């Protein structure tokens, strides 16, 4: 594995969530697959899990439920996707 | 300001009769809690209009958790402002639902302080359900629950709160310690429980014997059901006592054995244990005379679900027998292998059982690294999804 950090993965995930906000809801696995595609062997599922944890615990993203659980930007309460 | 009298003629119908009434209980709460009062008002409207006035989902929760709070809003907020936001908490129940009265009082006190005071004991997954929180009360209520030693359960696309039967705490038929297994799995998968990462929900249920008092085989993606390998224990003296007390052993036990493996000669019963399918019927009829064997463990079954999106599925045998000893590594290895494959290829809102049906059992077993065994097949040589290498070779030779 190369020297991609959890922070870098979290940043890349955040950019992806931001870019798709209002257009497509992303699940944790969608973000994981996108990161593995972007960084190749430098990341794995475990690292992506840590990156998601960092995004959520840091408040940059939140979990939401629209018929399934998604990771989205913090938004207006009651918004339905 | 004096409150307008609330008329609920349709709901009042549900108070008639000698049985308990949820309407009666909500009315009691409504005397002291305005949220409960507006709940009644909105419910009456729903009965009049014949539609639900609740909207479900959205962006509510507590910091760091993706499950445990279910967003709910009224679509008549001007008419029923006290239930404009009416979110639900799922609180992780203790294993086997054993409480002290002090613990229950604590929960109720917290809930009366922060919410509607209405509860549902328990949800179908097993959680304590607290119904009706305003958005601004979510974090303070969660803080009080945490302070009192409670945690939230699962909701959404995560591991749902594992549940188990009372097990050896109150049942002599328990073939393993369901309480210990349930607690261990709950603690081991806190991340998966609180941070949704799957295509859809994943339920663990632990039943101590094939009576399956937690309905694991009907509801859970991973059912761990107690069983035994050796012979059913028989006390012939007690069997004769049942017979002399009026139990028709031939009609009520022998004739109802699904595999016909029991015989009764009027003095003693004999069981061909190699044909026994552990249905528990004979043991249930004569609990003082018969008991599960001594070599005890569990069968792991995969893929049940209740009918929500598609039809209902019962779970199917994946591991016929394992010993149930902490730290339950075999269960964890199997669960994680399943999550890996289903997590990557499962569709949104597709349960594991549906996923297996879509990709085929043979392919699924290959992906999770589990060898097919005869116990996975209901009727030998009729399952088109599993091919044994020897059979394929034989077919090729014949051609």
Number of helices of chain A: 3
Secondary-structure content class of chain A:
mainly alpha
For this structure, what is the CATH class of chain A?
Answer: Mainly Alpha
Summed over residues and divided by their number, the pLDDT of chain A gives a mean of: 90
Helix content of chain A: 40-55%
Name the CATH architecture of chain A: Orthogonal Bundle
What distance separates the N and C termini of chain B? 91 Å
Biggest pleated sheet of chain A: 2 strands, antiparallel
Strand order of the largest sheet of chain B: 7-8-9-14-15
Which two chains share the most extensive interface? Answer: A-B, 27 and 32 residues
Strand content of chain A: 5-15%
What pattern of helices and strands is seen along the backbone of chain B? HHHEEEEHEEHEHHEHEEHHEEHEEEHHHH
Structure description:
The complex is a heterodimer of chains A (81) and B (399). Helices cover 49% and strands 10% of the residues of chain A. With 81 residues, chain A is mostly helical. Chain A has a single domain (6-72), classed as Winged helix-like DNA-binding domain superfamily/Winged helix DNA-binding domain (Arc Repressor Mutant, subunit A). Chain A has a two-stranded antiparallel sheet with strand order 1-2. In chain A, helix 1 (6-20) crosses helix 2. Helices cover 34% and strands 16% of the residues of chain B. In chain B, the strands form five sheets. A five-stranded mixed beta sheet of chain B has the order 7-8-9-14-15. In chain B, strand 5 (115-121) and strand 6 form a beta hairpin. The radius of gyration of chain B is 25 Å and the shape is globular. Chain B starts with 8 loop residues before the first helix and ends with a helix. The A-B interface holds A 27-29, 33, 45, 49, 52-53, 56-57, 59, 62-69, 72, 74-80 and B 55, 57-61, 63-67, 70-71, 73, 85, 135, 155-158, 191, 195-200, 340, 343-344, 348-349.
């Amino acid at each position: 594995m190369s020297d991609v950090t959890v922070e870098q993965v979290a940043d890349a995930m955040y950019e992806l969530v931001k870019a798709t906000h209002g257009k497509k809801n992303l699940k944790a696995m969608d973000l994981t697959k996108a990161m593995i595609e972007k960084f190749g062997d430098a990341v794995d599922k475990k690292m992506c899990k840590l990156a998601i944890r960092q995004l959520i615990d840091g408040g940059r993203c939140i979990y939401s439920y629209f018929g399934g659980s998604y990771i989205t930007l913090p938004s207006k309460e009651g918004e339905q996707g | 300001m004096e409150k307008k009298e609330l008329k609920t003629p349709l709901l009042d119908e549900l108070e008639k009769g000698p049985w308990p009434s949820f309407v009666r209980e909500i009315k009691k709460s409504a005397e002291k809690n305005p949220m409960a009062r507006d709940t009644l008002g909105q419910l009456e409207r729903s009965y009049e209009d014949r539609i639900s006035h609740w909207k479900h989902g959205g962006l509510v929760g507590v910091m760091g958790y993706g499950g445990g709070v279910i967003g709910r809003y009224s679509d008549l907020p001007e008419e029923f402002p006290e239930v404009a936001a009416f979110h639900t908490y799922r609180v992780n129940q203790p294993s086997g639902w054993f409480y002290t009265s002090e613990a229950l009082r604590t929960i109720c006190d917290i809930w009366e302080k922060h919410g509607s005071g209405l509860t549902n004991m328990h949800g179908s997954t097993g959680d304590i359900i607290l119904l009706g929180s305003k958005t601004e009360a979510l974090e303070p209520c969660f803080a009080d629950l945490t302070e009192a030693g409670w945690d939230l359960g699962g909701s959404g696309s995560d591991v749902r709160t594992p549940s188990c039967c009372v097990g050896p705490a109150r049942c002599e038929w328990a073939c393993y310690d369901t309480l210990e297994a349930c607690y261990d799995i709950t603690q081991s998968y806190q991340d998966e429980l609180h941070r949704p990462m799957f295509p859809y929900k994943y339920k663990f249920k632990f039943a101590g014997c094939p009576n399956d008092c937690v309905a694991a085989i009907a509801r859970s993606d991973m059912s761990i059901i107690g069983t035994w390998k050796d012979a059913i224990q028989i006390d012939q003296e007690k069997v004769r006592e049942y017979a002399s007390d009026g139990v028709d052993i031939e009609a009520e036990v022998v004739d109802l054995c699904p595999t016909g493996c029991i015989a009764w000669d009027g003095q003693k019963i004999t069981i061909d244990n190699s044909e026994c399918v552990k249905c528990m019927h004979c043991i249930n009829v004569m609990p003082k005379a018969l008991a599960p064997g001594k070599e005890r463990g569990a069968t792991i079954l995969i893929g049940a679900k209740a009918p929500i999106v598609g039809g209902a599925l019962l779970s199917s045998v994946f591991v016929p027998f394992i010993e149930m000893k902490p730290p339950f590594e075999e269960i964890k290895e199997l669960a994680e292998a399943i999550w890996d494959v289903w997590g990557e290829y499962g569709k949104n809102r597709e349960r594991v059982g549906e996923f297996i049906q879509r990709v085929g059992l043979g392919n699924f077993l290959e992906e999770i690294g589990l060898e097919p065994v005869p116990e996975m097949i209901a009727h030998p040589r009729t399952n088109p999804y599993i091919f044994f290498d020897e059979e394929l070779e034989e077919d090729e030779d014949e051609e």
